[in-house]
Amino acid sequence: MNILVKSGEVTTVTTDVLVCLGYEKEKAWSKAIRPIDKKLDGQLRDVRKNGEFSGKANQTTLLHINGKLSAKRVLLVGLGKWETMTLERVRQAMGTAAKRANQIKAKSMACVMPDVPKSMSHLDNVAQAMAEGAILGDYRFTEYRTDPSEERKTLQSCTLLAPTSGGQTTIKAGAKRGQALGEATCFVRNMCNHPANVMKPSRVVAEAKTIAKEPKVRLKVLDRQHMQKLGMGGLLGVAQGSIEPPHFIILEYSGGPKAQRPVVLVGKTVTFDSGGISLKPSENMEQMKADMTGGAEVLAAVRAASRLKLPLNVIGLLPVTENMPGGRATKPGDILTMLSGKTVEVQNTDAEGRLILADGLAYASRLKPACVIDVATLTGAAIVALGAFAIGMLGNDDALKNALRQAGNDSGERVWEMPLWDEYFEQLKSDVADMRNIGGRGGGMITAAMFLSKFAGDRPWVHLDIASTDWSAGERPCIAKGPTGTGTRLLIQFLINRATGS
Predict the structure, then answer these.
(1) What is the pLDDT of residues 7-22, one digit of tens each?
(2) At 165, is the pLDDT very low, low, confident or very high (cuts 50, 70, 90)?
C-alpha cells in the first residue's frame, strides 16, 4: 500500500473512502471534519444524534453520500474516549478502516488526521501510527488461493489529510516511518504464512540475500562445514534429523561510525518444528511453520534500519534449521558440546530453540556488541503466563530492559518482565553434563531464559519470548488470523529510539 500525505480542502479529496475518526461522547465533530458535515447537510451530526454512530473504539458506520463530495463514501470510525486516548487506539482505528475499505473493494482511502490530546504525542508519531494501522489492517495472505472468486486485496493507497496549519514535513517523516514498520511486519507475516515445504532454510537464505541488496547491508552465510569447524553443536544437533542443511546467517547493516559497537539481534529460525524425536501432538502442528518468526523479525529489522537510514550498526544473526525426527536425529539423553564449550544434556528434543539460540548468543558475544537482543517463539509456558497480549522479557541489564519497555509502549507491542533469579538454574542441573535443556514444568519461560543466559556473556542482553503473541486464532483490527509478526515493530522502534535518543 502506498502511504501519501496531503493538505488542503478535505471536501475536494477524490477517493473511494473518506475516513473520519470520532471520539465517544463527542459533542461536536473536530474542526477539520466540520466542512465535510456541512457539505453533507448535517448527515454526520445526525448519525451521532440518532445513535447510529457513538464513537466507541473501532465502531464503524459507512455513509453513501450521493455525489455531495468528491469522495465516493464516508466511513466513520470510533476512537473511544478522549481522556484515555493512545497511539494504539489510532492504529486500531486505521486497521479497522482498512479492513472495512477492503470489504467494499475500495482501491483508495483517505483519512482526516484526528485531534489528539496534547499530552499524548507529536504529529509525526500520530502519522506513524496511522500508516502502521492502515498497512497492518489491510494485510491478507492469498498467494496459494486459486479460486478467482476468492477475495483479493484491492486497497492500493492511503492518504493522510494533514491540517493546513502546517507540520507537513513532520507528518511525512512519521508516515514514512509508519510505512517502513508496517511493511516490515507484513514481510514477517508473509514469511511465516508460507508453508514449510516452501519456506525451507534455503529460502530464508534467499530472503537474506535480497535484503543484502539494501544500502549498507552485507551478508555472510555459514554452511554445515563451517559450523562444524567452529563447534556449533547446538545448531548442528538440532539439524541432524532433517535432510535440509542448516545455515547460520550473519546480516550486517553499517549505518553508524566504524568505532560504534553494534546492536546484535539474534532470531530463532526453525522453519518447521515437529518436536524431533520428542514428537509434538498432531493438533495445531501446522502452526509450527511459524517457529521461524524470530529470525524473520530480525531480517525485517535489519531491512528497516537500512531503509530508514538509521545511524546505527546492527547485526542480525539467524541460526536456521528444521527440527525433524529421523534415523540421525538427536535423541533424548544425547549430550551436545556448544559453541561456547559448555555441554548440554538433551532431555527433550522439542526444547530445540534454546539450543540453536545458545550458539547464536555465543557467536554474538564475539562481535563486541553494545547489546544483544534475542527474539524467539521459545516456550508454551509464555502463552500460559501471559496470554496473547504481552511479550515475555527477561535479561541482565535494566537500562536495556527499560529501553525495550519504552519501545513496546510506543509500538503497542508491549513487554512484561519476568524474574531471572539464580535459583531457577537449579532446575537445569544435569547429572552428566554442564546443564540440561529443560527445567521441568514450573517456570518454563524463566528456565528457558536462564538456560540462554549462560551463553549470553557479560554484555547487556535481553531475551524476548514471543510464543504468546506470534499467532492469532482470529482477526483483530491490526492483526490477521494466523502469523501476527508481533515483535517486529518493537525491535524497529527500539532501534529508532536508540538512534534518536528518545
Answers:
(1) 888 999 999 999 999 9
(2) low
DSSP reduced 3-state for 269: strand
Contact in structure between 439 and 422 (CB atoms under 8 Å):
no
Amino acid symbol at 339? L
Is 81 a catalytic site residue?
no
Task: Domain 2-164: give its CATH architecture.
Answer: 3-Layer(aba) Sandwich (3.40)
Alpha helices for 50-117 (secondary structure H): 87-103
| Grid coordinates belonging to 449 | 531464559
> Is residue 343 left, alpha or beta, with left meaning phi > 0 and alpha meaning psi from -120 to 50?
beta
> Is residue 289 annotated as part of the catalytic site, yes or no?
no
Q: What is the pLDDT of residues 436-482, one digit of tens each?
A: 999 999 999 999 999 999 999 999 999 999 999 999 999 999 999 99
Domains of the chain, by residue range, sit at 2-164, 188-500
- C-beta atoms surrounding 283 within 10 Å: 7
Instruction: Please state which architecture CATH assigns to domain 188-500.
Output: 3-Layer(aba) Sandwich (3.40)
pLDDT in the model for residue 431: 98
3-state secondary structure 21-53: EECCCCCCCCCCCHHHHHHCCCHHHHHHHCCCC
**DSSP state at residue 84:** G
What does the alpha-carbon distance between residue 404 and residue 417 come to, in Å, rounded to a whole number? Answer: 10
Q: Which member of 39, 354, 436, 459 is catalytic? A: 354
Give the pLDDT confidence of 230-240 residue by residue, as tens digits: 999 999 999 99
Domains 2-164 and 188-500 agree in fold: no
Structure-block grid coordinates of residue 253: 547493516
Spatial CB neighbours of 64, under 8 Å, sequence gap ≥ 6: 73
**E strands, 206-276, in order:** 217-222, 247-254, 263-267, 269-273
Q: Percent helix, strand and coil across the chain, each rounded to 5?
A: 35, 20, 40
Active-site residue among 34, 68, 72, 280?
A: 280
- Judged against a pLDDT cut of 90, whether residue 118 lies above it is answered with no
What are the backbone dihedrals phi and psi of residue 302, each rounded to the nearest 5 degrees, phi first? Answer: -65, -45
Tell me which residue of 201, 206, 124 sits closest to 169, measured CA to CA.
124
CB 126 within 8 A of CB 133: no
